[in-house]
């Protein structure tokens, strides 16, 4: 479960856009059959169709683009996703969703730069933008030449988005092991091979991908990660998380902001349909790459074909799903923390407006699955006092959410031990932290009855 | 020696031994746990789980009159069997009744009603059959004559749910149990997600609630669930688990439960669905109440619901820019 639980979901959006984003784009020829169709907004140009949703065929190309960018910008500003002092890292997979996210972030940065150049007091700095591409060649069976080509396209795209210049980080997925000694790549392959469930493998990769993104972001001083998850992908996540029994943690993954990570993750394309995104790429000739992946027999694949089937039958189905799931109570970490640092200029702090947040209602959660980082339900939180096993691999197993236990972790204790040994340190560290956290909490509760060293001496 | 040989052959054939009693040959692989179990152990496990569920949720109290919704299908037959057995075994002290609905579809209910009749004799449970003809003055056959083969599911579904309740009132029972199984509930969770029904989403996993959903739509999700089950049998229970763990935000506006002004049945609208449909039938406007457009019938009713809808749209539409 949990794998999808948290960042994974966002991760999934970032990388495999194949299934949802492949809905065919009808060419503009289709609306030539209806020549009287004029854009309902500007009433000048001919409307185009093929971008799906209820507005399909109502706007001309320009108004459509303005609309789509408007959705993005509204999501960014109303949730305080990007403020002038920020340095954001855009996760770019080469797919259309993250390509559009990158384009929009660039447009916004360009605008901020123009305003900065024109303003007299220059009180609002321009936010920084970096781009990261995660090379998953180690775990996906993709010919290396194809991966090289993809990286080449990514470089080309990023270097074309100037000014302002953006730094590109091309990072192999095994970077999650970089702080460990020994050969990370081999251990990574071993870990992935231990996972027998197809869906579990995909979700495990999503966890690792988020880990890699976090690592790059924190090492290079970024304070936001932008993912290109669109509404279609989020709708798929709602259904697949439900199917995996992750009903409790689901709301954590589908909000605009997910700040449970060291570096908060934001989803500014949460209101855009995959078809709209594809349309924009088509209209603006935005270059994308798609890595060839084999046939998908996982639950994620099944769900995404089911959802696209439903979307065909009813063009607002995906948004209905996401809005329904939006009625579930989010968690406390689903918002950008308020800037309280006095060193941040007042002008920037004032910029942090959030008129769309219902801050009064949220669930606080202190325990997270060490593997997928999804918040744990009360029934899933282990009681450490009852933990009879002293093997750390068994303890790790018990701290994971039930979905990870089922679909990722090996069930027999010997392979579990091996699996545990091969996990990246950062994941193992998370589990240890959790257990220590519980211990310190326990200690706090009995503090009054403990004799301190000083008292002892007396 | 012969016996040994046979045992070996059995193992070679792939015939496994029950993992509970380790004696008898396993005859089922239980989807819930993936355990190989023999017939008796499976029965025992199944029955004791239901017993536990009844105890844990305190579904019944002694002396209550309980009607079992019996369709003649396997779900309700199993339910009737298990419940009557548990009642005897654990002394629940329940008075059990079988309650059947006769829609009046020629050649459809006849067989299943016979099955119910057999159950009635076999488990010695009193049987009550309520028919659409008696309750509404229309048999399903007559309705189909008027409305055609499309959309008649709506009538059947709405009428059946009420028919069960009215039959239950006739028998003066305290509780009505139905044989909805895990698959049905999982499907309902999904359907409610798909069509944005927050109110139902929050109560569809509660144990005693009856469920109604238009049939055509159900079939769609049913196929998906069958596919899911093929990949991962446990998925169905996981969906229910998810449904149980959904925490609906308290700021969400829920439709209020009221009573139908016409028949007194629970309804979120002025008139309950059955009354709207019946009214349409009797006035010769059978399409009334089907689909989105609420026509002029019970015109206040139509307006009322529209107003409510627009208010709701504003309140919940915060994510809809």
Automatic annotation (TrEMBL), chain A:
<keyword id="KW-0819">tRNA processing</keyword>
<protein>
    <recommendedName>
        <fullName>Cytoplasmic tRNA 2-thiolation protein 2</fullName>
    </recommendedName>
</protein>
<dbReference type="InterPro" id="IPR019407">
    <property type="entry name" value="CTU2"/>
</dbReference>
<dbReference type="Pfam" id="PF10288">
    <property type="entry name" value="CTU2"/>
</dbReference>
<comment type="function">
    <text>Plays a central role in 2-thiolation of mcm(5)S(2)U at tRNA wobble positions of tRNA(Lys), tRNA(Glu) and tRNA(Gln). May act by forming a heterodimer with NCS6/CTU1 that ligates sulfur from thiocarboxylated URM1 onto the uridine of tRNAs at wobble position.</text>
</comment>
<dbReference type="GO" id="GO:0032447">
    <property type="term" value="P:protein urmylation"/>
</dbReference>
<dbReference type="GO" id="GO:0016779">
    <property type="term" value="F:nucleotidyltransferase activity"/>
</dbReference>
<dbReference type="GO" id="GO:0002143">
    <property type="term" value="P:tRNA wobble position uridine thiolation"/>
</dbReference>
<dbReference type="GO" id="GO:0000049">
    <property type="term" value="F:tRNA binding"/>
</dbReference>
<keyword id="KW-0963">Cytoplasm</keyword>
<comment type="similarity">
    <text>Belongs to the CTU2/NCS2 family.</text>
</comment>
<dbReference type="GO" id="GO:0016783">
    <property type="term" value="F:sulfurtransferase activity"/>
</dbReference>
<dbReference type="InterPro" id="IPR014729">
    <property type="entry name" value="Rossmann-like_a/b/a_fold"/>
</dbReference>
<dbReference type="GO" id="GO:0005829">
    <property type="term" value="C:cytosol"/>
</dbReference>
<comment type="pathway">
    <text>tRNA modification; 5-methoxycarbonylmethyl-2-thiouridine-tRNA biosynthesis.</text>
</comment>
From TrEMBL, chain B:
<dbReference type="InterPro" id="IPR056369">
    <property type="entry name" value="CTU1-like_ATP-bd"/>
</dbReference>
<feature type="binding site">
    <location>
        <position position="101"/>
    </location>
    <ligand>
        <name>ATP</name>
    </ligand>
</feature>
<dbReference type="GO" id="GO:0005524">
    <property type="term" value="F:ATP binding"/>
</dbReference>
<feature type="binding site">
    <location>
        <position position="184"/>
    </location>
    <ligand>
        <name>ATP</name>
    </ligand>
</feature>
<dbReference type="InterPro" id="IPR011063">
    <property type="entry name" value="TilS/TtcA_N"/>
</dbReference>
<feature type="domain" description="tRNA(Ile)-lysidine/2-thiocytidine synthase N-terminal">
    <location>
        <begin position="66"/>
        <end position="218"/>
    </location>
</feature>
<dbReference type="GO" id="GO:0016740">
    <property type="term" value="F:transferase activity"/>
</dbReference>
<feature type="binding site">
    <location>
        <begin position="69"/>
        <end position="71"/>
    </location>
    <ligand>
        <name>ATP</name>
    </ligand>
</feature>
<protein>
    <recommendedName>
        <fullName>Cytoplasmic tRNA adenylyltransferase 1</fullName>
    </recommendedName>
</protein>
<feature type="region of interest" description="Disordered">
    <location>
        <begin position="294"/>
        <end position="321"/>
    </location>
</feature>
<dbReference type="GO" id="GO:0005739">
    <property type="term" value="C:mitochondrion"/>
</dbReference>
<dbReference type="GO" id="GO:0002143">
    <property type="term" value="P:tRNA wobble position uridine thiolation"/>
</dbReference>
<dbReference type="GO" id="GO:0002144">
    <property type="term" value="C:cytosolic tRNA wobble base thiouridylase complex"/>
</dbReference>
<dbReference type="Pfam" id="PF16503">
    <property type="entry name" value="zn-ribbon_14"/>
</dbReference>
<feature type="binding site">
    <location>
        <position position="179"/>
    </location>
    <ligand>
        <name>ATP</name>
    </ligand>
</feature>
<keyword id="KW-0547">Nucleotide-binding</keyword>
<dbReference type="InterPro" id="IPR014729">
    <property type="entry name" value="Rossmann-like_a/b/a_fold"/>
</dbReference>
<keyword id="KW-0808">Transferase</keyword>
<feature type="binding site">
    <location>
        <position position="75"/>
    </location>
    <ligand>
        <name>ATP</name>
    </ligand>
</feature>
<feature type="domain" description="Cytoplasmic tRNA 2-thiolation protein 1 C-terminal">
    <location>
        <begin position="258"/>
        <end position="288"/>
    </location>
</feature>
<dbReference type="InterPro" id="IPR035107">
    <property type="entry name" value="tRNA_thiolation_TtcA_Ctu1"/>
</dbReference>
<keyword id="KW-0067">ATP-binding</keyword>
């Amino acid at each position: 479960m949990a794998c999808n639980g948290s960042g994974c979901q966002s991760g999934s959006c970032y990388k495999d856009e194949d299934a949802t984003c492949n809905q065919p784009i009808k060419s503009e020829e289709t609306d030539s059959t209806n020549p009287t169709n004029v854009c309902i907004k500007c009433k000048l140009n001919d409307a185009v169709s093929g971008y799906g949703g209820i507005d399909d065929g109502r706007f001309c190309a320009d108004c459509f683009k303005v609309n789509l960018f408007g959705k993005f910008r509204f999501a960014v500003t109303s949730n305080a996703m990007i403020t002038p002092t920020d340095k954001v890292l855009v996760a770019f997979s080469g797919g259309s969703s993250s390509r559009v996210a990158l384009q929009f972030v660039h447009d916004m940065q360009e605008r901020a730069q123009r305003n900065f150049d024109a303003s007299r007091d220059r009180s609002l700095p321009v936010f920084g933008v970096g781009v990261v591409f995660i090379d998953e060649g180690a775990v996906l069976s993709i010919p290396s030449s194809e991966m090289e080509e993809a990286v080449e396209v990514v470089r080309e795209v990023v270097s074309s988005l100037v000014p302002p210049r953006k730094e590109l980080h091309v990072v192999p997925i095994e970077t999650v092991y970089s702080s460990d000694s020994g050969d990370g790549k081999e251990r990574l392959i071993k870990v992935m091979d231990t996972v027998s469930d197809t869906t579990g493998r995909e979700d495990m990769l999503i966890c690792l991908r988020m880990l890699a993104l976090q690592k790059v972001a924190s090492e290079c001083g970024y304070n936001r990660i932008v993912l290109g998850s669109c509404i279609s992908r989020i709708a798929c996540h709602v259904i697949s998380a439900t199917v995996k029994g992750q009903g409790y943690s689901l709301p954590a993954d589908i909000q605009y902001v997910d700040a449970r990570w060291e570096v908060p993750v934001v989803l500014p394309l949460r209101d855009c349909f995959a078809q709209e995104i594809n349309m924009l790429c088509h209209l603006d000739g935005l270059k994308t790459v798609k890595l060839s992946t084999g046939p998908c027999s996982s639950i994620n694949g099944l769900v995404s074909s089911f959802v696209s089937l439903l979307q065909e039958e009813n063009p607002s189905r995906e948004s209905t799903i996401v809005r329904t799931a939006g009625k579930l109570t989010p968690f406390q970490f689903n918002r950008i923390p308020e800037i309280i640092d006095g060193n941040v200029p007042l002008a920037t702090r004032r910029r942090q407006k959030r008129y769309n947040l219902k801050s009064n209602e949220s669930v606080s959660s202190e325990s997270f699955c060490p593997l997928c980082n999804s918040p744990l339900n009360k029934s899933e939180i282990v009681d450490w006092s009852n933990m009879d096993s002293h093997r750390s691999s068994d303890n790790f197993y018990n701290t994971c959410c039930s979905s990870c236990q089922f679909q990722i972790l090996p069930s027999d204790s010997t392979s579990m031990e091996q699996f545990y040994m091969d996990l990246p340190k950062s994941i193992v560290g998370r589990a240890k932290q959790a257990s220590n956290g519980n211990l310190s909490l326990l200690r706090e509760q009995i503090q009054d009855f403990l004799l301190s060293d000083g008292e002892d001496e007396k | 020696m012969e016996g040994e040989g046979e045992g070996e052959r059995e193992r070679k054939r792939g015939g496994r031994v029950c993992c509970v009693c380790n004696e008898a040959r396993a005859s089922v692989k239980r989807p819930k746990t993936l355990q190989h179990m023999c017939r008796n152990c499976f029965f025992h496990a199944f029955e004791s789980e239901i017993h536990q569920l009844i105890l844990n949720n305190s579904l019944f109290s002694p002396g209550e009159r309980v009607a079992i919704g019996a369709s003649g299908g396997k779900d309700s037959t199993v339910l009737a069997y298990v419940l009557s057995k548990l009642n005897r075994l654990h002394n629940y002290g329940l008075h059990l009744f079988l309650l059947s609905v006769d829609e009046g579809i020629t050649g459809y209910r006849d067989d299943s009603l016979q099955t119910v009749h057999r159950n009635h004799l076999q488990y010695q449970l009193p049987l009550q059959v309520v028919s659409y003809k008696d309750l509404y003055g229309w048999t399903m056959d007559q309705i189909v004559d008027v409305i055609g083969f499309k959309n008649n599911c709506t009538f059947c579904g709405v009428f059946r749910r009420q028919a069960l309740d009215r039959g239950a009132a006739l028998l003066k029972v305290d509780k009505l149990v139905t044989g909805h199984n895990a698959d049905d509930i999982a499907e309902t969770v999904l359907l409610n997600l798909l069509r944005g029904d927050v109110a139902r989403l929050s109560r569809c996993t509660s144990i005693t609630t009856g469920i109604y959903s238009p049939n055509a739509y159900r079939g769609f999700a049913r196929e998906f669930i069958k596919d899911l089950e093929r990949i991962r049998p446990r998925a169905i229970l996981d969906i229910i688990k998810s449904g149980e763990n959904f925490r609906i935000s308290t700021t969400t506006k829920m439709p209020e439960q009221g009573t139908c002004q016409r028949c007194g049945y629970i309804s979120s609208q002025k008139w309950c669905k059955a009354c709207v449909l019946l009214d349409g039938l009797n006035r010769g406007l059978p399409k009334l109440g089907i689909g989105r457009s609420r026509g002029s019938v019970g015109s206040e009713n139509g307006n009322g619901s529209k107003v409510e809808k627009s208010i709701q749209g504003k309140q919940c539409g915060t994510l809809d820019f």
